[in-house]
Amino acid sequence: MKRSGVADLPLHGGRVPPWLADRMSKLGAAIVEAILQSYGRSEFLSRLSDPFWFQALGSVMGMDWHSSGITTSVLGALKRGLSNRSDELGIYFCGGRGEALPQDSG
């Protein structure tokens, strides 16, 4: 059965507090490592691409379930938490907040 619907996510300003960002990085890294070890990269990427699963992952990691910043915050936490093991795990996270990305000089 295909799930469909609409979610109204209010726009939140600000940033994730440093203490929460640190916890999200550690917890997210542990979750991803467990999934990779148990199910492999293909299954992890399949799960990550499911918006319902992604929203649940963000909630488990500590984000408000209805936060509009969940994508940037979760992917940023995973990038920080797994960057030192990316070669070993075969998973690389890129991007982040717009201000953290290199700027085009053209």
Q: In percent, how helical is the residue content?
A: 40-55%
Largest sheet: none
Globally, the shape reads globular
- Oligomeric composition of the shown chains: single chain
Are there runs of 5+ residues with pLDDT below 50, and where?
none
State Rg: 15 Å
Pattern of helices and strands: HHHHH
Describe it:
The chain has one domain (19-93). It is mainly α. It contains five helices and no strands. α1 (18-39) crosses α2. It has helices spanning 18-39, 41-48, 51-61, 70-82, 86-89.
Features:
106 residues; mainly alpha; 5 helices
Task: Report a brief summary of the structure.
Helix content is 55%, strand content 0%.
Write the layout of secondary structure elements.
Blueprint: H1 18-39, H2 41-48, H3 51-61, H4 70-82, H5 86-89
Helix pairs in contact: 1-2, 1-4, 3-4
